[in-house]
Amino acid sequence: MFEKSTWIRLPRNVVVGHGVRSAVVDVVDDLHLQGRPLFVTSPTPREVAADPIAADFEAAGIEPKIVTVEKATFDAVERVIEVAEAEGAAYLVGIGGGKAIDIAKMASYHLEMGFLSVPTAASHDGIVSNRGSVPDGDSRHSVAAEPPLAVVADTATLADAPWELTTAGCADIISNYTAVMDWRLAKRLKDVEYSEYAAALSEMTAEILVDNAELIRPGLEESAWVVTKALMSSGVAMSIAGSSRPASGAEHLFSHQLDRLAPGAALHGHQVGVGSVMTAYLHGGDRGIWRDIRNALSSIDAPTTAAELGIDDETVVEALTTCHEIRDRYTILGDGMNERAARDVAKKTGVID
Ligand SMILES: NC(=O)C1=CN([C@@H]2O[C@H](COP(=O)(O)OP(=O)(O)OC[C@H]3O[C@@H](n4cnc5c(N)ncnc54)[C@H](O)[C@@H]3O)[C@@H](O)[C@H]2O)C=CC1
Ligand SMILES: O=C(CO)COP(=O)(O)O
Ligand SMILES: [Zn+2]
């Protein structure tokens, strides 16, 4: 008897384009959301977007409460839950980069409340995904979270954000190549749950982005459009899979370990991009696609070396040898690299000197 079932939760409204920030209040109306919203944001996105959006709500007779968060931690999620309960919030709006959006979607999941995603940077593919990513001691959890009821991505805001945030988003997408290689490997070796549709969507998203790399240039609003569509498509792949597997493999483990060893040194997307160059080498050796990945990253101004990340060579080697312990996710790293092998791959790919 056939007993499989799946439940894929995707946004109902996706609004992307120039100036759509002022449409958030209309989107809320279209979704028939009632009551007081809680905006979850961080300091710069508050100035850039949350305060102006709050003014639109006030003009429409709705008084939002705003909470500002700094880090994507379980404590921050707890604080947002407490504020939402104390203020009688009816739904949450995450406004900012990956961290603010992750906190909002995780708090919404716990509160069983609707959530809207309003990215202010095209820096990560968590904009529509149903996962949250949180460091916790020596581990990094990928936790279930509320997918957004709607996404409102204003390309004017995204194009105005610092250019490196956009290149980080591109690198987060380019890393899908190796994430999918790891997922297929884990399917073959460990029979993990696998979706060919999610894997294909994730790979195709990376391909389309690389094919359109010439459109991704600083100061071009069209770049924000191209990158945001890719970020959403990658997030949909995660929602189809019900896991971050299509977009997170060993290159993400490497980045999560760098976050522990060198906190704040580089952006998430830039770290996973450099990780992807090295794990592509581990998958395919010298004839594999590692040079294609490195060239794709260079073509959109993303870092390809430890020095460009602002991280020293020894930290890269340490991250490579220890990052398999971050979580129980089988990848090309298997049960870990030894130091000589880690140094070798980092040197051969030009990541370290
Ligand atoms: N849940 C998921 O599926 C995913 C989650 N992530 C998570 O997202 C985080 C990475 O996201 P990021 O956006 O790189 O980090 P982030 O949220 O820390 O943002 C980076 C910086 O950009 C600033 N910023 C945002 N918009 C701006 C604007 N318009 N102008 C000026 N500055 C602006 C922020 O204030 C922050 O200082 C990581 O924690 C990562 O694990 C990443 C991918 C997928
Ligand atoms: O960053 C992600 C996908 O780009 C997902 O993060 P995790 O590695 O925490 O699942
Ligand atoms: Zn990522």
Automatic annotation (TrEMBL):
Root EC class: oxidoreductase
Q: What does this protein do?
A: Catalyzes the NAD(P)H-dependent reduction of dihydroxyacetonephosphate (DHAP or glycerone phosphate) to glycerol 1-phosphate (G1P). The G1P thus generated is used as the glycerophosphate backbone of phospholipids in the cellular membranes of Archaea.
According to UniProt, the name of this protein is: Glycerol-1-phosphate dehydrogenase [NAD(P)+]
The record's section on HAMAP family has: G1P_dehydrogenase_A
Q: Which gene encodes it?
A: egsA
At the top level of its lineage, which domain of life is listed? Archaea
Zinc recorded as keyword: yes
Q: How is the cofactor bound?
A: Binds 1 zinc ion per subunit.
**Taxonomically, what lineage is the organism?**
Archaea, Methanobacteriati, Methanobacteriota, Stenosarchaea group, Halobacteria
GO MF terms here are: glycerol-1-phosphate dehydrogenase [NAD(P)+] activity; metal ion binding
Enumerate the residues binding Zn(2+): 172, 252, 268
Per the similarity annotation, which family is this? Belongs to the glycerol-1-phosphate dehydrogenase family.
> EC number(s)?
1.1.1.261
Query: What cofactor(s) does the depicted protein rely on?
Result: Zn(2+)
Q: Which UniProt keywords apply?
A: Cytoplasm, Lipid biosynthesis, Lipid metabolism, Metal-binding, NAD, NADP, Oxidoreductase, Phospholipid biosynthesis, Phospholipid metabolism, Zinc
The UniProt entry, under PANTHER family, shows: GLYCEROL DEHYDROGENASE, GLYCEROL DEHYDROGENASE 1
Identify the residues that bind glycerol.
125, 172, 252, 268
Q: Enumerate the residues binding NAD(+).
A: 98-102, 120-123, 129
Q: Which InterPro entries match?
A: G1P_dehydrogenase_arc, G1PDH, Glycerol_DH
One Gene Ontology term, aspect cellular component: cytoplasm
Q: In which pathway does it act?
A: Membrane lipid metabolism; glycerophospholipid metabolism
Q: Which reaction does it catalyse?
A: sn-glycerol 1-phosphate + NADP(+) = dihydroxyacetone phosphate + NADPH + H(+); sn-glycerol 1-phosphate + NAD(+) = dihydroxyacetone phosphate + NADH + H(+)
Q: Where is substrate annotated to bind? A: 125, 172, 256
- Which BP terms in the Gene Ontology apply to this protein? glycerophospholipid metabolic process; phospholipid biosynthetic process
Q: Where does it localize?
A: Cytoplasm
**Annotated signal sequence range:** none
